[in-house]
UniProtKB/TrEMBL annotation:
It comes from Rhizobium hidalgonense. Residues 19-207 form the Isochorismatase-like domain. Transmembrane segments: none annotated. GO terms for molecular function: hydrolase activity. SUPFAM superfamilies: Isochorismatase-like hydrolases. Pfam families: Isochorismatase. Keywords: Hydrolase. This is Cysteine hydrolase. It comes from the Bacteria. InterPro entries: Isochorismatase-like_dom, Isochorismatase-like_hydrls, Isochorismatase-like_sf.
Length: 222
């Protein structure tokens, strides 16, 4: 069986069951003037991973393996936004409010869009998710079943919130999860480090972590 060099031990990869999930690489989280910046975050930490995320996406496309994108966003009428979520964060700019890139985290608004460098191509699935985890109130589970996927490589932001939440959801559903270290990021380096440690603790209790180059080397021979 093929393996990807990983921590805490090699990831036993099945290329015909492997998909890439790119979490929330959206303008509102990565660009100056977006929702992430409004919370006082250094968005340059997010944009610096774009080249590695792009390399992963291109590698999966070249290998003919599925690429799935997620976007955190809500309906324009906010019917899928719990007050408990809206009431947290920046009190002067909340989800649904008008911001520099349109209404914050609302489906169809400019700031909600995926960064142009990482934009989906025809045939790639885009999951619009109202929660942190990509399985909650979405069709992700059905999509993965239809594609017969059992192993998931994760990239995107932020490591400790939407990425880790989705990995934990996937782990509980029986998927084998691998986090691409250079292709994920947090506004807080200590949070990324802690999330990585938690993911691969106790013999990959949530999943594995691997470097982008090692993942690309493996799928190049898929």
């Amino acid at each position: 069986m093929a393996e990807i060099k990983a921590e805490p031990f090699a990831f036993p990869v099945k290329h015909d069951q492997l998909a890439l999930i790119v979490i929330d690489m959206q303008r509102d989280f990565a660009e100056p003037g977006g929702f992430g910046a409004s919370l006082g975050n250094d968005v340059s930490r997010i944009t610096r991973i774009v080249p590695d995320v792009k390399r992963l996406i291109q590698g999966f496309r070249y290998a003919g393996l599925p690429v799935i994108h997620t976007m955190e966003c809500h309906r324009p009428d906010l019917s899928d936004l719990p007050p408990a979520k809206r009431d947290r964060g920046n009190p002067t700019l909340r989800i649904g409010d008008e911001g520099p890139m349109g209404r914050v985290l609302i489906a169809g608004e400019p700031g909600t869009a995926i960064l142009p460098e990482l934009a989906p191509v025809k045939g790639e699935v885009v999951i619009e998710k109202p929660g942190k985890g990509a399985f909650y109130a979405t069709q992700l589970g059905e999509v993965l079943q239809q594609k017969r996927m059992k192993q998931l490589v994760f990239a995107g932001v932020t490591t400790e919130v939407c990425v880790q939440t989705t990995m934990r959801e996937a782990n509980d559903r029986g998927y084998e999860c691998l986090l691409a270290v250079e292709a994920t990021e947090s506004y807080f380096p200590e949070f990324k480090a802690a999330a990585i440690a938690m993911i691969r603790a106790q013999g990959a209790i949530v999943g594995w972590t691997a470097h982008v180059d090692d993942i690309l080397e493996s799928i190049a021979h898929a």
